[in-house]
Amino acid sequence: MVVYIDGKYVDSTEAKVSVFDHGLLYGDGIFEGIRIYGGNVFRLEEHLERLEMSAKAIMLAMPLSRAELSAAVCETCRRNKLNDGYIRLVITRGAGDLGLAPWLCEKPTIFIIASKISLYPQEYYDNGLSIVTVPTRRIAPDALPPTVKSLNYLNNILAKIEARQAGALEAIMLNSQGYVAECTADNVFIVQKGEIVTPAASAGALKGITRSTIFDIAREIGVPMREADLTRYDVWCADECFLTGTGAEVIPVVKLDGRVIGNGKPGGITQRVLASFRKRVQAEGTRI
Ligand code: PMP
Predict the structure, then answer these.
(1) 16 is an active site residue
(2) pLDDT in tens, 130-152
């Protein structure tokens, strides 16, 4: 596998970062998870825009322009002959002396991995996931804006462990007010009385690129959609529920905390959204 790192394309065995990299020492960095479908990178511009906003928020000077990053992403896929897969683009504060101060780091480290992805097994797309709410809360927006896709994932990782201990593959994380924020790596949606509802970023949700695609799909299929605070009760009593993420795409949820959602099967609107999403990923994108 070929990895892009700091301007070079090298074999993955040669792709190394320093033990003094602040991305490793302090989680000081940002990233994007991006998909390529049939040789087209899905919503690359949106991912790069989100990355630029994350960089701005943490006051990290982007080492490459949007066009240079876009070219590097596409070239990494080409060099790996990857037409379908997952791209991980990471920018860290770079290597510097010990100590939190980001100005100890001379220049950011940047690397791009283009690889295969293992999705949830097909049976969960057909039959839906059974998930749980976990005790670990989403980091509050006044502590670290959830809109920053940073290398700080420990609270999501703890939530993932709690989900596994409860026998579930995903978990709903609440914010400090007790409202639904998101899942450990996916955004959450419910369908209630023919309307799609999802938590706002202010409730602790990442502004997912798949989530923004769902707004477009809702318009296309004529289903109203809005952002609102959601409680666990709202999800338990919803007609349908689904999750979205670059890795998971659109996946139905049929049970939360032991409560069956709707009729216990992936809902009609969820299925329409999923079908439209699958069409879009084949039709849209930046040709590598
Ligand atoms: N929330 C979190 C915490 C995430 O890490 C992700 C990305 N996997 C998402 C939501 C979904 O965002 P996207 O659709 O951009 O992948």
Answers:
(1) no
(2) 999 999 999 999 999 999 999 99
